[in-house]
Design goal:
The protein is of the alpha/beta class and about 500 residues long. The protein is built from 16 helices and 12 strands. Strand 9, helix 4 and strand 10 form a beta-alpha-beta unit. An 8-stranded mixed β-sheet has the order 1-4-8-5-9-10-11-12, with helices on both faces. Strands 2-3 form a two-stranded antiparallel ribbon. A two-stranded parallel sheet has the order 6-7. About 40% of the residues are buried. The termini are far apart. Helix 3 crosses helix 4, helix 5 runs antiparallel to helix 9 and helix 13 crosses helix 14. It is about 40% helix and about 10% strand. It is globular.
């Protein structure tokens, strides 16, 4: 083909090329100007619209639920069926740690086993942050409890031997008095509810024990925040607690744990629906609760477990397409781990009262058994410990005081607060104690349980048993490892 012929061919094809180029540009323009789609955001908006359209969350001024034909979920601040648990009403004022007075209060509780004639076989089981009194199934409530496999004949808390009591903590929303409860004027406390401490929760529990005629516990048992309560029970009432079990707990909230809980409270309080805590007759702050729960869920497990359970697997698409690494990524959840966190947040956001989450998590942050912190609050146990006893231990060399420990190597350098913690733990020196730690726990790292054990031994407690558990379950090990956690507890209590 000659040069003239070739140029003539190119000129004839030019309009077609220009047309194709124009079409491509139009497609690109459409792609860049089209409104982006976010199914996860749309789903959340639809959920909020459904909640807003229903009346299940609206209450009358008397505190009862407004009538509704809506079959939506039970609101987070509605009490469980009162027929499924017992309620103790304390009609007298309770002086709280930070100077306030609670005029009266209710404590919801459930029991398992039989109380001995001498009432000396009682185990008080303390809950974590958001658990109810329903630790195991009962005739009144046959649904599985949060510690179902640990309570019963021949189990860790052997109901053939022990009478087990579990309460919903003061400040909670599952039958015990908390921010969602009515004040003496018939209005919901909301954020007018007083700031609580772990000690206040335990004081309320012991008012219940007084009511039941229980003078001394066989044991005080708790995990997570329950481990804090268990220590506080022995510290406040050293003559009324026979043994202590603290699982994945601590004697002093660490800055890392405080930071994690602060992040949860921050996203919750940033939800406009929180309305400074006065949301009970309006839309609840479910968005903030969902995000807070997602943050919490990350702290309850461990990275290695996420790898084992989810890896980098992609979620299945709704149109039935198989997950494929080649599919276009989105800003909504693509990975299975993302959908898991999303599900956990959705499941929790309408089942628990937001204000209870704020108050109880703050109580966890404030927990500190070092001597200066206790003195600042003017705290003292019911049985005074001689001052010489509480101070002499703090003069000992930490290495000498804990040299007998073979359960874990002593640290090269103890934290500056360590002698003060040992001094603060003086009231616990005569109580046999079991401490369990989990090596994969990032919320209550195992260093905190090691520190607790060393400080107890430095304080003069020669009856401390300590075990560290492996595995990948993280903080939730106390809920899942029936063999090791249950075996250690059963052996210690027998």
């Amino acid at each position: 083909m000659s040069l003239i012929a070739r140029n003539s061919f190119r000129l004839k094809a030019l309009p077609q090329c220009l047309s194709s180029l124009t079409s491509l540009r139009q497609q690109a323009t459409c792609a860049t100007t089209a409104t982006p789609s976010f199914p996860c955001v749309d789903a959340h908006a639809a959920r909020e619209s459904k909640i807003l359209a229903s009346s299940f969350y609206r209450y009358s001024q008397t505190g009862t639920r407004a009538s509704s034909s809506d079959s939506g979920p039970e609101p987070p601040y509605a009490r469980p069926n009162p027929q499924s648990y017992n309620t103790y009403h304390h009609q007298y004022p309770l002086e709280l740690t930070y100077g306030s007075i609670l005029p009266s209060f209710d404590i919801a509780y459930e029991t398992w086993g039989s109380l001995s004639p001498s009432r000396d076989n009682v185990i008080l089981l303390h809950t974590g942050l958001s658990a109810s009194s329903h630790a195991a199934s009962t005739e009144l409530n046959p649904t599985e409890g949060w510690w179902e496999k640990f309570i019963g004949p021949g189990r860790a808390l052997d109901t053939n031997q022990f009478f087990v009591i579990c309460t919903n903590v003061l400040g909670g929303c599952y039958g015990s008095t908390g921010p969602s409860s009515l004040d003496p004027e018939g209005q919901r406390y909301a954020t007018r509810f007083p700031i609580l401490s772990i000690f206040d929760m335990v004081q309320a529990q012991f008012k219940l024990l007084d009511h039941l005629g229980v003078q001394k516990l066989y044991a005080s048992v708790g995990s997570s925040m329950g481990g804090m309560q268990s220590l506080a029970a022995g510290w406040l009432f050293p003559d009324r607690v026979g043994k202590i079990v603290s699982i994945s707990g601590t004697a002093r909230s660490s800055p890392g744990s405080i930071a994690m809980r602060h992040a949860q409270r921050s996203v919750l309080m940033a939800d406009p629906n929180w309305n400074n805590g006065f949301y009970y007759d309006d839309l609840p702050p479910h968005t903030g609760m969902k995000l807070a729960r997602q943050i919490a869920t990350i702290t309850y497990r461990s990275g290695p477990e996420w790898d084992q359970r989810f890896g980098r697997k992609l979620r299945e698409l709704k149109d039935g397409q198989s997950p494929s690494p080649s599919r276009s990524p989105t800003l909504c959840p693509d990975f299975l781990i993302e959908t898991y966190l999303d599900h956990q947040g959705e499941q929790f956001c309408l089942k628990y009262d937001a204000n209870s989450l704020l108050y109880i998590s703050k109580a966890m942050d404030l927990f500190d058994l070092t001597l200066p912190a206790l003195q600042e609050l003017s705290m003292s146990p019911t049985t005074q410990v001689p001052s010489s006893q509480s101070t002499s231990s703090s003069r000992q060399s930490p290495i000498q005081a804990t040299a007998a420990s073979k359960s874990h190597p002593p640290p090269l350098h103890y934290a500056p607060h360590f002698p003060e913690l040992a001094a603060g733990l003086g009231p616990l020196k005569s109580i046999p104690m079991l401490v369990l730690g989990v090596q994969s726990d990032i919320l209550f790292p195992v260093e905190q349980q090691r520190e607790l054990v060393d400080a107890l031994r430095m304080a003069g407690n020669t009856q401390v048993s300590y075990f560290e558990l492996g595995g990948v379950w993280g903080h939730d090990t106390f809920l899942l490892d029936v063999l090791n956690v249950g075996g250690a507890v059963r052996g210690f209590l027998s």
